Amino acid sequence: MPEVNVEINGRKYRMACEEGQQKHLIGLAERFNAQVENLKGAVGEIGDTRLTVMAGIAVVDELAEAERRIKELQTEIVVLTRAGQEVAAEIETLEEKFAAKLRDAAKALEGVANALDEAAPMPQG
């Protein structure tokens, strides 16, 4: 199993990960370290353990907010999908009605054409 070295709050940690996940793990560690550094800048030196716990809670808070937003978007997708399906069904109904009217008009025109053909004198040739 591959291992990578990451740095959190000035300390190096050796971590194992799945094959091909090295860059991903390093990126996650960099993001977490940025949280730690931001907190350190905001609250000052408060001790490594407390700082790490606060950063972890901040990350979990971001995750919870992202999950809440995903649920909102999923609900919105369901609503929009239903609305789209209703619009599509309405369009289909209107197309069917239009096609029926067009057929009726074509039959009426055909009747007029037949009546004109019957009323017109036959050409002499």
Describe the protein's architecture and organization.
InterPro entries: Cell_div_ZapA-like, Cell_div_ZapA-like_sf, Cell_div_ZapA_N. Homodimer. Interacts with FtsZ. The chain has 125 residues and is mainly α. The protein contains 2 helices and 2 strands. It is rod-shaped and about 110 Å long.
Write the layout of secondary structure elements.
Elements: E1 3-8, E2 11-16, H1 22-43, H2 48-119
Antiparallel strand pairs: 1-2
Organism: Devosia psychrophila
Subunit structure: Homodimer. Interacts with FtsZ.
Coiled coil: 56-119
Strand content: 5-15%
Mean of pLDDT: 93
Largest sheet: 2 strands, antiparallel
- Tell me, what's the shape? rod-shaped
> How large, in whole angstroms, is the Cα Rg?
36 Å
Number of strands: 2
Give helix and strand order, one letter per element, not per position: EEHH
Tally of alpha and pi helices: 2
- Assembly annotation: single chain
Helix content bin: over 70%
Structure class: mainly alpha
End-to-end Cα distance, whole Å, is 98 Å
Unreliable stretches (pLDDT < 50, length at least 5) are none
Count of all domains: 1
Strand order of the main beta sheet, please? Answer: 1-2
Organism: Devosia psychrophila
Protein name: Cell division protein ZapA
Keywords: Cell cycle, Cell division, Coiled coil, Cytoplasm, Septation
Subunit structure: Homodimer. Interacts with FtsZ.
